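ARCHIVE CARD
CATEGORY: sequence design from structure
SOURCE FIELD: tokenized fold
FIELD CONTENT:
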């Protein structure tokens, strides 16, 4: 009777020890399990690495806010409430780019003045941003 010794187990390996007597189907099953576990671990790590950026993006998406929107830019501190108002006026007049520059400028100025002076519009800006727009001078 011959006694076969199992090879030493590498503690860093998650694969079961093998000998020359392992059936191909057993080896294939063990390899598939190991591969599936590695894929799952990789997916979990990728999800965890998204971190705060993902959480912020999810919060913005839940509120219907894109990363480039004026509201998202305000929240990141890239612009203030005045900059938010300017960006919203730009969005509102985007479809008017075909107008002469002087006319477009006049329309933008009128819209911004209205946004900053009309009590109801000021309240909407305050509700959207959490900050009151600056008073007109």
């Amino acid at each position: 009777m011959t006694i076969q010794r199992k090879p030493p187990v590498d503690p860093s390996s998650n694969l079961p020890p093998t000998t020359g007597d392992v059936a191909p189907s057993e080896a294939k099953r063990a390899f598939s399990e190991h591969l599936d576990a590695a894929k799952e671990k990789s997916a979990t790590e990728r999800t965890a690495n998204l971190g705060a950026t993902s959480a912020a993006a999810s919060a913005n998406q839940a509120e219907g806010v894109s990363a480039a929107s004026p509201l998202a830019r305000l929240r990141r501190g890239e612009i203030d409430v005045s900059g938010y108002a300017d960006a919203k006026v730009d969005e509102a007049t985007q479809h008017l780019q075909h107008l002469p520059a002087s006319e477009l400028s006049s329309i933008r100025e009128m819209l911004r003045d209205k946004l900053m002076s009309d009590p109801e519009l000021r309240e909407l800006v305050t509700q959207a941003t959490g900050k009151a727009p600056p008073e007109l001078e």
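CARD ANNOTATION: Residues 49-54 have pLDDT under 50 and may be disordered. Residues 117 and 137 are 10 Å apart (CA to CA).
SHELF: design records, drawer C
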